[in-house]
Amino acid sequence: MNRPARRWPIAYLLLTTHLPFLVFCLAGLLVVAGLVLGGVAVFGAVRISALDVGGQLLRWLALGYGYYLLRTMLPMVLVHGRTRREYLCQVPVFQLITTGVLAGATTLGYAAESLLYRAAGWPHQLAEARLYSDTTDHLVIFASYWMMLLGWMATGSFLGAAFYRLRAGGVLALPVALLLLAVNGLSNGVLSLPFIKLDLLPQDLGVPAALTLGAASTLVAVGLCWLLARDMPLRTRTS
Amino acid sequence: MTLTIEVSGLQVRYGEAVALHDLSVRLPGGRIYGLLGRNGSGKTSLLSTLAGFRKPSAGAVVIDGQPVFENPQITRRVCLIQEGGGVGDDTDTVKDAVQVAQRLRPGWDAQYAATLIDLFELPLRKRIGELSRGQRSAFAATVGLASRAAVSMFDEAHLGMDASTRQAFQDELLRDFIARPRTIIISTHLVEEQSPLFERVLILREGRLLLHEDLDELRAQGVSLTGPAATVDDVVAGLTVLNQQQLGPTKSVMVYGALDDARRAAAEAAGLELGPVAVQDLFIHLTEPTGAAR
């Protein structure tokens, strides 16, 4: 066993087994986006970036995966002799790296898409208002996706901890999670959630302020998750 | 190395319900303990706190002189296997789950795990969610044994196993215990089947420790007498009768408590057959619910 595996066994395990799976999911999403794009090109006119539309689905993957990390993985790790503290310290590191990799891969996707659209003579426009103004604004695209995925994954973990610990009482965490996601939406220029449009917050904050708000909401989600999970009892079946 | 477990004033509450009341016990290392009790007596709550799965509501659980809860130095030397496992994600294959255990558990014995997987005939490529109940239990038992934890606990881990698999598990547990002495606690309702494993027995009743003693001492607390009905009735008069059966003129009675010399002499003189009482019969008698729990 190498040094990182000994010192950071949980983060190392997740990075070497779960990160490849998530990259595989992203690749699947890109393939689907490509197929849709091909269909639109054949039967209609391509006007906007396919990745800018499909890429937003990534946040749901991040939310669900974050939920799984607390709801399913944490109890299993405890059974194998690790502590909550170890898990709750190493998982955010894993989330930071993983969402960075996914955001980087998505940014590369935007770059590749730019070349394709240019070659095909299609207009490469954004689907709706974003923090980045152009599909070639790679640095902001990367930062925006990183913050979005990180925030959604951390919020998913918060919800996972809430529903595991409080069972049905976990619904009490939903309004808090919605608020966190809405604030996080600033980092991607997206303040809307499905079925909910939040126009209360200004959308022209500027990149640094928006990213700072996104980071703050992520930290709040991590903190709330910590509060719920740090002494969370493992569910047991009593006979 | 064996570890001593010390529990003092332990209380576990679930909201208003109290599962364990002020429980104190010291379990020296290097023994196999049987943890017995009726449903809801607090066995799982006790084991969960010993494993650090649950924080005590009050009191202390100390292993090797250190508190257990959120103490990685201790939790990685403790392993609790419960019914249903929880040792792997249902979507993982057995092979993947073994690799996860290997990477998380410092003392994991991969070679021994492979031996146990062969012994229990577990399909490596099958997902855990697709295993039968007995296979899941066998896999959980595999993880419990191959973890090589200094404190290994099995909470109804045999449920779903067929008789031959249960026997294989018991034989393997005993063989491995002899080769590598450690502290093993087995919680079970199969009292008669699994009691040959126990060196000492703990019995919980309604969240309180009712009894903690050697199995042989427990056995000595009961005796069965068989012979002519009238003679048997005379000898056991005034004693606590656990069970009695009569076939024609012959009666068999199990009593709680050792026979004093006078009664023993009278029984022998009358030609009554004396024998031991099954641990399960003693257990049933000892754990009769009190009025409050009825």
From TrEMBL, chain A:
Q: Which UniProt keywords apply?
A: Membrane, Transmembrane, Transmembrane helix
What is the designated name of this protein? Uncharacterized protein
The keyword Transmembrane is assigned to this record: yes
> Membrane-spanning residues where?
21-45, 57-79, 91-112, 139-164, 171-196, 208-229
UniProtKB/TrEMBL annotation, chain B:
Keywords attached to this Swiss-Prot or TrEMBL record, sorted alphabetically, are: ATP-binding, Nucleotide-binding
Cite a single GO MF annotation: ATP binding
User: Which residue range or ranges hold the ABC transporter domain?
Assistant: 5-231
One of its Pfam families is: ABC_tran
Check the record and name the SMART domains matching this protein. AAA
Q: What is this protein called?
A: ABC transporter ATP-binding protein
Protein's organism: Pilimelia columellifera subsp. columellifera
